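RECORD TYPE: inverse folding
INPUT: structure tokens
STRUCTURE:
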């Protein structure tokens, strides 16, 4: 009998040791994944196409829109590299043309240009104009057409070290079940008050502290994209909510939702972004104490 008890205890000890080793390996892998994700996040924000270098957003009126550092222009941007009169944008029939002032060295890629068609309709990508370290291109938001301006030599980019975050916690890495929706449209409103219907493949269902929650998802590239809010908004996290990506579900409809990777929308970093807001059904009634906290630097 004693022999059987000893064997049983030994067996249980092996199980405990194996489980502890597996958990330790899982935790190590999780932390390594998080460290890599956080570095990629910093790199993306500091990139030439990131959100930290935005320094202007100008909405065009029909007709001629003069651009430069002088107050006589309709679009004024005061910067050492901006001429008093850089040129003008002409908006007609949903097309935008750019014309440079004489001796102003604007470029598209590496080619000097004096004029160019910048925008024809939202189906075609708008070229990026360059003048020294300044970059600008056309964006459209519903019926508004505007200029997004960047400074590649921005001091904000140079000083940025990352966002304050909640402590990484593997407990916020949750199993989720994907459920397709019969109605595949999701009304998304942005900070300008414009609302557009976007295709939604379905919702993610998951459990926190024994209670079931769900979030409607969008598709971006080959991932699910989630706009969500929670009880920390305005009390540690960005007031309007945060963003999150998740892998597409497997053949059985299963995926992972990792709130450690919840991140701030562009509007947390700059007043020159036009962010989408979480739909009402994606406002969780609990505090998600994971992921990025609010970043005030670009909004002050």
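DESIGNED SEQUENCE:
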């Amino acid at each position: 009998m004693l022999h059987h008890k000893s064997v049983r205890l030994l067996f249980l000890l092996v199980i405990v040791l194996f489980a502890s080793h597996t958990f330790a390996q899982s935790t190590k892998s999780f932390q390594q994944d998080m460290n890599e994700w956080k570095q990629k996040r910093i790199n993306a924000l500091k990139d030439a196409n990131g959100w930290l270098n935005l320094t202007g957003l100008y909405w065009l009126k029909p007709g001629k829109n003069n651009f430069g550092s002088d107050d006589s222009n309709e679009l004024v941007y005061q910067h050492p590299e901006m001429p008093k009169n850089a040129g003008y944008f002409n908006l007609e029939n949903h097309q935008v043309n750019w014309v440079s002032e004489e001796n102003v060295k604007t470029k598209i890629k590496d080619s000097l240009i004096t004029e160019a068609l910048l925008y024809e309709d939202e189906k075609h990508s708008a070229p990026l104009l360059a003048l020294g370290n300044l970059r600008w291109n056309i964006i459209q938001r519903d019926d508004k057409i505007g200029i997004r301006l960047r400074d590649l030599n921005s001091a904000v980019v140079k000083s940025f070290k990352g966002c304050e975050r909640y402590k990484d916690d593997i407990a916020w890495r949750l199993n989720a079940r994907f459920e397709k929706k019969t109605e595949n449209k999701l009304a998304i409103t942005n900070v300008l008050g414009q609302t557009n219907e976007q295709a939604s493949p379905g919702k993610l269902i998951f459990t926190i502290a024994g209670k079931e929650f769900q979030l409607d998802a969008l598709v971006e590239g080959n991932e699910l994209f989630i706009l969500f809010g929670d009880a920390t908004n305005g009390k540690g996290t960005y007031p309007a909510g945060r963003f999150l990506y998740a892998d597409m579900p497997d053949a059985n409809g299963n995926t992972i939702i990792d709130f450690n990777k919840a991140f701030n929308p562009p509007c947390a970093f700059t007043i020159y972004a036009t962010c989408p807001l979480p739909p009402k059904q994606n406002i969780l009634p609990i505090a998600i104490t994971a992921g990025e906290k609010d970043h005030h630097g670009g909004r002050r």
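NOTES: The helical segments are 2-46, 155-159.
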